[in-house]
Amino acid sequence: MKPLSHPQWEDLCRRCGGCCYEKIEHDDGFVEHTQTPCRYLDGRTNLCLVYQERFEVCPDCLPVRPETVAELNWLPEDCGYVAHLRRVRAADAGPTTDLAGQGRQGRVQRVSVLGGKR
Ligand code: SF4
Ligand code: SF4
User: Fold this and answer.
1) Ligand 2 centroid distance, CA of 34 (Å)
2) pLDDT < 70: residue spans in the chain
3) Which of 19, 73, 74, 99 satisfies CB 3.0 to 4.6 Å to 109 for a cystine?
4) Could you identify the atom of ligand 2 that is nearest to the CA of residue 82?
5) Tell me: the pLDDT tens digits for 47-72?
6) Residue 118 in domain
């Protein structure tokens, strides 16, 4: 599969807001998904209220980048980036081969880490 352009990468996001809920990473690595949304998530539209400055105002907000998305095991199964990763792997191109070098940011995540990790 060919590497994606920035707009193509951005378009993978479904704007579902599914990644914008607090998560708890346990000591054994298990990630628990909670029903607690980020304070900046608009519950009506599922869009971020501070998207342009999200990393400044929300320290827990993390970028989804092509080179790191394969490591983000807390993304929802129906996330557009997860679906893309599945397609890449199915095509046997390998996630790093297909995704490397884009350096773009997609939607972001919020993770609350408990139990002394990180
Ligand atoms: S994009 Fe980041 S700041 Fe915005 S709602 Fe989601 S987690 Fe919060
Ligand atoms: S990054 Fe994934 S989970 Fe988050 S809003 Fe986009 S499609 Fe939904």
Assistant:
1) 16
2) 92-118
3) 19
4) 2
5) 999 999 999 999 989 999 998 899 99
6) no
